[in-house]
What we know:
The chain contains seven helices and four strands. By secondary structure, the protein is α+β, with helices and mostly antiparallel strands. It has one domain (3-133): Nucleoside diphosphate kinase-like domain (Alpha-Beta Plaits, 2-Layer Sandwich). Adenosine-5'-triphosphate (ATP) binds at residues 59, 63, 93, 111-112, 114, 117-118, 120.
Amino acid sequence: MNQIQTLAIIKPDAIRNKTAGKILSIIEDSGLTIEAVKMMRLTKELAGAFYAVHRGKPFYEELLDFMSSGPCFVLTLSGENAITRWRELMGATNPATAAEGTIRKLYGTNIQFNACHGSDAPETARQEVSFFFSGTDFL
Ligand code: ATP
Ligand code: MG
């Protein structure tokens, strides 16, 4: 058993395309548990801090514009191997190369507008969960 939490974001493109509910269904059908959720619109500054690891990359500015372009759902998910399980459900970063049936293949548009985010390792999961949530958000 490896019960841990990960951070998921249903990105602004999915809210705009009205596929957020379908993505939530995939999460629930997967057996992962939604522990906390908030709908929020990131400021460019907040998006920049969240994706600070990508500062300096060619897509960084566009990524911040995209992530602050409208509301998103920010969630914590828990379950056995939640980090890798959620990354598997999302699929590869680029919807064009993501496996059939993955969220990005089903609902992503391109490498930028790719519907969802997931933490990539235990340390980043801890950081990202506490970036958005505090103890009182877990009911
Ligand atoms: P995320 O961190 O959002 O879960 P990821 O870990 O699959 O995605 P990263 O390399 O961390 O991929 O990239 C972060 C995000 O930046 C991507 O999800 C995508 O929205 C955007 N992005 C990544 N590469 C590119 C690119 N070459 N051109 C445009 N946008 C990109
Ligand atoms: Mg990433």
